[in-house]
Amino acid sequence: MPEQINPDHYKDKLIETFDAIVSQLTPIEVVGFLRGQIMKYTMRLGSKHGGTVEAKLMDAGKADWYNNKLMQYLNDYKDKLDG
C-alpha cells in the first residue's frame, strides 16, 4: 500500500489509529464512519495538491483503502453473526 494512504505515523503506536477509533464505535457507527471516509475522498477527488492526476490517484486510493476496510468489516461481522 502506498505510503500516503496509510503512512507510518498512523502505525507508530501500540494500537493503530484506525483500530483505536473502530474499537470505540458500535457496528452501525463503524459502517457509517467507513462510508463517510469513502465519500470524503471520492467527493474531494483531486481537489487538494493542485488537482493533479497524482492527487486524484491518491484520493481514489484512499477511498479504495476505506472501501476494502468496509468490505472486510462487513464480511467479518457477517461471519460473527453466522458463527
What percentage of the residues does DSSP assign to strands (E)?
Answer: under 5%
Output the radius of gyration. 14 Å
Total of DSSP H or I helical runs spanning 4+ residues:
3
Topology, number of strands: 0
> What is the SS-derived class?
mainly alpha
Q: Tell me, what's the shape?
A: globular
Q: Provide mean pLDDT, rounded.
A: 90
Specify the helix fraction band. Answer: 55-70%
What is the helix/strand order?
Answer: HHH
* Contiguous uncertain segments of 5+ residues: none
- Distance between the amino and carboxyl termini: 31 Å
Oligomeric state of this protein: single chain
Largest sheet: none
Q: Could you walk me through the main structural features you see in this protein, from its secondary elements to its overall organization?
A:
The chain is mainly alpha-helical and 83 residues long. The protein has a domain at 25-82. It contains three helices and no strands. Helix 2 runs antiparallel to helix 3. The relative contact order is 0.14. The mean pLDDT is 90.
